[in-house]
Specification:
It holds the Pfam family Cadherin. This is Putative family u69 unassigned peptidase. By secondary structure, this protein is mainly beta. Among the domains are: 105 residues, Immunoglobulin-like (Sandwich); 101 residues, Cadherins (Immunoglobulin-like, Sandwich); 200 residues, Sandwich (Immunoglobulin-like), CATH 2.60.40.60; 104 residues, Cadherins (Immunoglobulin-like, Sandwich). The protein contains 4 helices and 45 strands. The strands form 15 sheets. Strands 19-18-25-24-21 form a 5-stranded mixed sheet, with no helix packed on it. A 4-stranded mixed sheet has the order 1-7-6-3, with no helix packed on it. A hairpin with a 4-residue loop joins strand 31 and strand 32. The longest helix is centred in the N-terminal third of the chain and has 41 residues.
Length: 768
């Protein structure tokens, strides 16, 4: 029994453990599910992407009442089984709405990136709250919603400052910019939708104008204008952006062409005739047919006044007079017997304001006695000169015969090389093809005139006048040269350009222009050489070679030249290039040295002058005969009496001061200074004070001054000249105010020292 019960007990124990673990696991699962459900309930209305707001990008052309996007919030927003509720924070003003039962946002207002017809941007709030918690606002979440509006090509360019008018002269050269400032503005955001291009719409006059650049509103004349043909015209301009498809707008430009002096005067008739009757009256206008001689300026806006003259001074012209204003022809003097008629006169009509504008016609005069039975040219040889730039169709020369009024006369060119000329039935030779002076300069023609019965031949020589109608041409439009030597020097050849002129006898002058023109030089042979390495600052230099001919007017053309240098040449050029300011620097140093020397001299003179002025007031009284130092004027003086001899106490001289009177330096005073006992004494001797002539100046007696010691017998007598003592004493120092008035300076006074007593023997020692 015991053995059998053991296993049963064990199985029960295992059974008990299984039931405990299962219960635990069930509890954990149930708890986890409840926790997950609770967490899910807590995560409602939060954005699933982890952000704090929603942003949508919407084009401004997006239609209203369309869904722009879906809110990425956690929860079910359906009306039946939903666990969250979405609503706008301000439903009345919000440009968005939420489709019921969904998370979709619906656009309610129009968008416009420019902000004119709609909203430029949108920022609003959406409130998300779990169901059945409307009263608990703390459980709701506000989700900011932002809409970024992108641009659409919804605006067409608009021309500014319309309508456009343009006044232009008919002589304006094609290629000239005739108008600027045409501008159209596109209100779209910067980019292709707002980039405007300009065009001239196709039309009857669109070939006359074009835009210089599609992106710039500058009009250029394409073809020549003619006031007499088109005085005014209108073109249509188009401005469009670069959208796809593009937006465009149109405007008109009215062009008014102004007349210019571009035409020669014109006679009202091709030729004129006068029939002279017998004995015509002098000074009376002749009857000119088909009308009076008259020409006018075809430039309608100018209508320059015309002046009439004869075109020659041949003898036959001297009998007639042509009025310069009216064009009336009168007989100036009687025609002589045998005057050959008919005669043809050439009349010239010239604009008064421009002598280069003129035209010619003929006046043929016939008479009653002339019977033109035979046909002849009026001249057997004709000369004509024509510019090589004369257009075909222009009249070169008019030939006249004795039967100018008869239309039965026919003309024919017998010799016409290259068919360059043609002749009209009226006898006018015209140019048939364009001339070229470089090809041929002279033409010889023979003209036949016939009426079927009579014939006559005349020779015509036509000379071509050269016109500078060709620009100089370079053999290449662009040249490129490579310099390989880094040690290139001034004057070395870089390369050669070739320029030729198709005009005969024209020489070409070459010059250099451009940013690197100072680095190079060129001669008329086209050799480009180094001019100044100082301006070499780059490995690549660009210059423009200008070729100018010597024609009238001169013409020119250009070619671009590129020169490449090695880097070593650039470095060496900057180091070795001569400096322009070296001479200036040396000159500055020289002037600086001169200025410094001058300043040093001035300072030295100033110090010297101040030093001498300082000691000028310390002049000594005198120097004794033994070379003793002079006395100072402020020294104390003792006068000897009869009982005891009082010495004059000389002061110690100032060391190093030059004596201007005796040219002695005070530095010697140390060697010449004597003891006070060795000084001279002045004995009281009235006899000695008397002068040799017995006179006593100023009531006092001056004794002769003795040199040396007392009793040595060496006495020097000094007599002062009369009038040499100045009456006024100049005040030189503070010592002049002393009561004793001691004057020891011989330049000031020689007044002797005074004493309060009257000794028997008064002597005075005076030092010079």
């Amino acid at each position: 029994m015991a053995a059998a019960s053991g296993p049963r007990t064990k199985w029960r124990k295992w059974d008990f453990r299984f039931l405990g673990v299962g219960w635990l696991m069930l509890h954990v699962v149930t708890t986890a599910a409840a926790t997950a459900q609770s967490l899910a309930q807590d995560n409602l209305c939060y954005l699933t992407h982890g952000g704090s707001s929603e942003t949508f990008t919407v084009n401004e052309a997006f239609p209203v009442e369309s869904i722009i996007g879906t809110l990425q919030v956690a929860g079910n927003a359906s009306e039946t089984y939903g666990d969250i509720e979405l609503r706008m924070a301000d439903p009345e003003k919000a440009p968005l709405s939420i489709m019921p039962g969904t998370k979709d946002l619906v656009l309610r207002q129009k968008l416009d990136k420019e902000g004119e017809d709609g909203l430029r941007s949108v920022t609003t709030d959406v409130i998300c709250a779990p169901r059945h918690t409307r009263d608990n606002d703390h459980l709701s979440i506000t989700v900011p919603v932002r809409i970024i509006v992108t641009d659409a090509n919804d605006n067409a360019p608009e021309f500014q400052g319309t309508p456009y008018f343009l006044n232009v002269s008919e002589i304006t050269v094609p290629g000239t910019t005739v108008m600027q400032g045409i501008r159209a503005v596109d209100k779209d955001q910067p980019g292709p939708f707002s980039t405007v291009e300009y065009y001239v719409e196709d039309g009857p006059y669109s070939h006359l104008l074009t835009f210089e650049s599609r992106l710039e509103g500058s009009l250029v004349l394409k073809d020549r204008l003619d006031y007499e043909t088109v005085p005014r015209f209108t073109v249509t301009l188009r401005a469009q952006d670069q959208g796809n498809p593009p937006q465009s707008s149109h405007t008109t430009l009215v062009v008014v062409v102004h007349d210019a002096d571009d035409q020669n005067p014109r006679f009202l008739a091709e030729r004129y005739f006068v029939h002279l009757h017998e004995n015509p009256r002098l000074g009376v206008p002749l009857d000119v047919k088909p009308s009076k001689i008259q020409a006018e300026d075809p430039d309608e806006e100018i209508r320059a006044p015309i002046k009439y003259t004869f075109n020659s001074d041949a003898p036959e012209y001297s009998y007639f007079e042509l009025h310069p204003q009216t064009g009336h022809v009168t007989l100036q003097r009687p025609l002589p017997e045998g005057f050959a008629l008919p005669v043809t006169l050439v009349v010239r009509a010239t604009q008064k304001d421009n002598a280069d504008r003129f035209t010619l016609t003929t006046l043929t005069l016939t008479g009653d006695k002339f019977l033109p039975h035979e046909l002849h040219f009026l001249n057997s040889h004709y000369e004509a000169r024509v510019l090589e730039s004369t257009p075909p169709g222009q009249i070169v020369l008019s030939l006249h015969t004795t039967r100018a009024t008869e239309k039965s006369v026919q003309f024919q060119l017998l010799e016409n090389e290259d068919e360059m000329f043609a002749i009209q039935p009226t006898g006018e030779i015209i140019l048939a093809r364009r001339l070229d002076y470089e090809m041929k300069q002279d033409y010889t023609l023979q003209v036949l005139a016939t009426d079927g019965k009579y014939n006559d031949v005349a020779r015509v020589n036509v000379s071509v006048i050269n016109v500078n109608d060709n620009d100089p041409q370079f053999r290449q439009g662009r040249y490129s040269f490579m310099v390989t030597d880094p040690h290139i020097k001034k004057g070395e050849l870089i390369g050669k350009v070739d320029a030729v002129d198709a005009d005969s006898n024209d020489t070409v002058q070459l010059s250099i222009d451009g940013p690197s023109a100072r680095l190079f030089t060129i001669n008329n042979r086209g050799e480009v050489r180094i001019r100044d390495l100082e301006f070499l600052n780059s490995t690549t230099s660009h210059l423009v070679v200008v070729a100018t001919d010597d024609g009238v007017p001169p013409r020119k053309s250009t070619a671009l030249v590129e020169v490449k240098f090695p880097e070593e040449a650039v470095v060496l050029g900057s180091v070795l290039a001569p400096k322009k300011d070296e001479g200036s620097f040396i000159l500055m140093i020289v002037f600086g040295a001169l200025l410094g020397s001058l300043l040093l001299i001035i300072i030295t003179l100033t110090v010297y002058i101040l030093k001498n002025k300082k000691y000028r007031n310390r002049l000594p009284v005198s120097i004794n005969g033994n070379g003793h130092a002079p006395l100072n004027k402020v020294a104390s003086i003792k006068i000897a009496t009869s009982a005891t001899n009082k010495l004059i106490n000389p002061p110690r001289p100032l060391a190093g001061v030059e004596n201007p009177i005796f040219n002695l330096s005070d530095s010697k005073s140390e060697d010449t200074t004597e003891d006070m006992s060795e000084r001279e004494t002045v004995p009281d001797s009235p006899e000695a004070a008397q002068t040799p002539n017995g006179a006593v100046p100023n009531g006092r007696v001056l004794e002769a001054v003795r040199n040396g010691h007392l009793g040595n017998g060496n006495i020097m007598n000094i007599q002062w000249p009369i009038g040499s003592i100045p009456r006024r004493v100049k005040k030189l120092s503070w010592e002049d105010e002393q009561p004793n008035k001691t004057a020891l300076d011989p330049d000031v006074s020689v007044t002797p020292l005074t004493n309060g007593q009257s000794p028997d023997h008064n002597e005075l020692t005076v030092y010079f």
